[in-house]
Amino acid sequence: MPGLFITLEGADGAGKTTQGALLAQAFRALQYPVLETREPGGTPVGEAARRVLLDPSLTGMAPMAEVFLYAAARAQLIREVILPALAAGTVVICDRFTDSTLAYQGYGRGLDMDRLQSINHWATEGLAPDLTLLLDIDSDEGLSRARRKGADRMEMETAAFHQKVRHGFLELAAKETSRIRVIPAGRDIFEVHRQVINAVREKVPELVCSQEG
Ligand SMILES: Nc1ncnc2c1ncn2[C@@H]1O[C@H](COP(=O)(O)OP(=O)(O)O)[C@@H](O)[C@H]1O
Ligand SMILES: [Mg+2]
């Protein structure tokens, strides 16, 4: 039985972690095997890269160094976690994936898109998500939600940067309409969950909303 690979994308504070947990619960309620993971991270190597990437004291990081640290975490996650889980028939729900590289390092920092695509392809061994849920939120609202837990290195970027990232995610969604579903994420948690479930029902029609939303 092949697994199902779902990624959650969007700004910090959009609700990816919250919605990923609710979605996982909805699958578990139907006895599907589910694995929740995140980028950068999800493996010991990846979590080590994450600490470097999000460390607010590391202010001088070169943009390409950032790209390769994310790619290193992704390559490890693919090998160690995602490919084996999918081969075992698991539903894999990943908080951020390749679209974040294109939105943040491509649209946000202005790095060459073709190069980023090829680095992504290399790191993922060519694996693309079956479905990507883009949680779209006003940049200021996302930031104010995220800042309740304290700003990290990426969250310290300017408002203009975050607006470019948001626009970038939406352009990616417009280019890949069959893979990426845009979910307005400014509403209350259960309403967003309802829309997430609606989108995932295209792949798993029997899915119902989690009661704990
Ligand atoms: N729809 C929502 N409405 C209001 N607050 C929310 C909503 N979704 C998430 N939050 C809160 O906003 C903060 C960021 O949510 P989180 O799921 O961690 O976002 P992300 O993982 O995208 O950064 C958390 O404190 C969370 O409880
Ligand atoms: Mg999160």
Automatic annotation (TrEMBL):
Q: Which GO terms describe its biological process?
A: dTDP biosynthetic process; dTTP biosynthetic process; dUDP biosynthetic process
What does it catalyze? Answer: dTMP + ATP = dTDP + ADP
Q: What class of enzyme is it?
A: transferase
Q: Which NCBIfam families match?
A: DTMP_kinase
Query: What EC number(s) does this enzyme carry?
Result: 2.7.4.9
Q: Which domain of life is it from?
A: Bacteria
Is NAD found in the keyword set? no
Task: Tell me yes or no: is GTP-binding among this UniProt entry's keywords.
Answer: no
Q: Which Gene3D superfamilies match?
A: P-loop containing nucleotide triphosphate hydrolases (3.40.50.300)
Q: Short name of one Pfam family for this protein?
A: Thymidylate_kin
Question: What GO MF terms are annotated?
Answer: ATP binding; dTMP kinase activity
Function (record text): Phosphorylation of dTMP to form dTDP in both de novo and salvage pathways of dTTP synthesis.
Kindly state one GO CC term assigned in the UniProt record: cytosol
Sorted alphabetically, the keyword list is:
ATP-binding, Kinase, Nucleotide biosynthesis, Nucleotide-binding, Transferase
Q: Which residues form a coiled coil?
A: none
Record's InterPro entries?
A: P-loop_NTPase, Thymidylate_kin-like_dom, Thymidylate_kin_CS, Thymidylate_kinase
The organism of origin for this protein: Heliobacterium mobile
Where does this protein hold ATP? G10, A11, D12, G13, A14, G15, K16, T17
Stated family: Belongs to the thymidylate kinase family.
What's the name of the protein? Answer: Thymidylate kinase
* Thymidylate kinase-like domain residues: 8-196
